[in-house]
Amino acid sequence: MEERIYDLVYEVEERHWWFRGRRAVIEALLERTQPPTHSRRGRILDAGCGTGRNLELYSRFGRAEGVDPSPQAVEYCRRRGLTAVREGDAQSLPFEDGRFGLIAATDVLEHVLDDAAALREMHRVAAPGASLLVTVPAYEWLWSREDVRLEHHRRYSLGGLRRTAAAAGWEPRFGTYFNLILLPPIAIARKLPRGADAEPELERTSAALDGVLSLPMRLEARLIRWGLRLPAGVSVGLVCRRS
């Protein structure tokens, strides 16, 4: 991603409605891992850890380590006091076979040129019975200038993500769309013409609205925690197991 995007993410990801809502969904998806992540204290890998806010979340459940291809992102993690972070590529992870009991890749695969290779690498470093938690952006028809700005290679359907994960050796166990309630306004906003110098999406809503705008995904997270699968949404979540 552009360097200024990392600066912006570090600045806003604690309070911004999208990050707050997605963290709620991630915690709900963690409940779907086998066994539930909160019941074990194994090694966890945040593959594509970015500036480190989710790595702080995973550290509540075990010994969490992070990897990211951006030296800028790694530096931001260290500013948070996160020392178990290294620079590395998801397609060639710098870890030995079978190291981790849980691997999380949240909004990472869309940035990777060969997503299947990345999933095979995650399978390699996963222990037998380990879980994989993935989130990605949904629907090619939602493609916009923002995807280009963020250096995405693709958007996904749930079925397509399942097939790619299964081909890499993972056993899909639970999948759902999320950010359903805000799908219509986001879809409309994505289709509005914007110039090349338009501000990033993270800057388009007032901080005063973060609490209200995070409520829909937090509600959806509660439904996912109960085992419900949402039929559509701006994003896709998938939990897999290494058999």
Task: Please give a structural write-up.
There is one protein chain. With 243 residues, the chain is α/β, with parallel strands linked by helices. The protein has a single domain, classed as Rossmann fold, CATH 3.40.50. Helices cover 37% and strands 20% of the residues. It is built from nine helices and seven strands; from the N terminus they run ααβαβαββαβααβααβ. A seven-stranded mixed β-sheet has the order 3-2-1-4-5-7-6, sandwiched between helices. Helix 4 links the parallel strand 2 (63-68) and strand 3 (85-87).
Overall geometric form? globular
Q: End-to-end distance, in Å? A: 34 Å
How many β-strand runs? 7
Task: Enter the CATH topology name.
Answer: Rossmann fold
Indicate the radius of gyration in whole angstroms. 17 Å
Strand order of the largest sheet: 3-2-1-4-5-7-6
CATH class: Alpha Beta
Give helix % range. 25-40%
Helix/strand class = alpha/beta
Relevant CATH superfamily: Vaccinia Virus protein VP39
How would you summarize the topology of this molecule?
Elements: H1 3-12, H2 17-30, E1 43-47, H3 53-58, E2 63-68, H4 71-79, E3 85-87, E4 100-106, H5 115-124, E5 126-137, H6 145-149, H7 158-167, E6 171-178, H8 183-191, H9 210-225, E7 235-241
Helix pairs in contact: 2-9
